Amino acid sequence: xxxxxxxxxxxxxxxxxxxxxxxxxxxxxxxxxxxxxxxxxxxxxxxxxxxxxxxxxxxxxxxxxxxxxxxxxxxxxxxxxxxxxxxxxxxxxxxxxxxxxxxxxxxxxxxxxxxxxxxxxxxxxxxxxxxxxxxxxxxxxxxxxxxxxxxxxxxxxxxxxxxxxxxxxxxxxxxxxxxxxxxxxxxxxxxxxxxxxxxxxxxxxxxxxxxxxxxxxxxxxxxxxxxxxxxxxxxxxxxxxxxxxxxxxxxxxxxxxxxxxxxxxxxxxxxxxxxxxxxxxxxxxxxxxxxxxxxxxxxxxxxxxxxxxxxxxxxxxxxxxxxxxxxxxxxxxxxxxxxxxxxxxxxxxxxxxxxxxxxxxxxxxxxxxxxxxxxxxxxxxxxxxxxxxx
Length: 390
What we know:
This protein is an alpha/beta fold.
């Protein structure tokens, strides 16, 4: 084990050379630990270091996966000149400041959602990416989930025909979750809805109108001042006649966990099932009414991935809990999206291109939720997206 706490401060600002494997440091080892084998086995990347404030967990994870470079403090990750990119999996309030600090330190950034909880911080990240030439990717799982990839392939191949409408929902009961979660405004964590509709439409959001519905318990309103149990928004996208609807709930609403997408074309449409693990439903136009819908199974799209990580798109191929008390699982989570996310970020850095979503797209998707909540607090008034996100 190497537990470094006084590494040399590197120069900031310039992207690293991509003639070698990318040294990735994973920050946060809850959800983040699931990505360790992906970075270890990707042809363009290396899991060089891990960072976790709890040193026992840091060492347990490092020992299990054989990662030698370990940090208990994020600032020390940034001082290590061998770190090319940081993959941030910290709590939501830490996303913005950690991303900003990493960009100032000359590191590329992959960060779990959302990008930030303020428009000002989103702008800081976009401006820094432009100033430094570094890459930023918000690791939005839904736009790499097998269901989204299936819908996008149908759309791109023309099998849906002309796109007419898209909607998405993310409903989840967050009671009992720790720390910053209680009372979080639903739309502040909306990228799992916004990402897929924006990705399918292919344009940035231009403005949004949102209504709040219902109320949450008094104790949930104290921290953020958000009264709504559910927030529902309509989004107008720039340069297109297609709009979208998104639905978000976090507390005091009875619903099984659901991240869903419905896409409607003039030839065919695909809808997410009402109950988890049921098949998608495709509706085909101009058929007798009973024959319009049929269940469809979407592929896992492992063929798009390098051989070393393709296996992680399949449910149950990795279960470290059988060998250790550490609760790591890999493969089935988030629609098999994790290896696709890692592959997109690593490939973008290796080829010197922007990842999808890039900093501006990530800011647009995040700011849709922030602007939607502002709209809901003001009775549904139209709120324009900031110009820097367009």
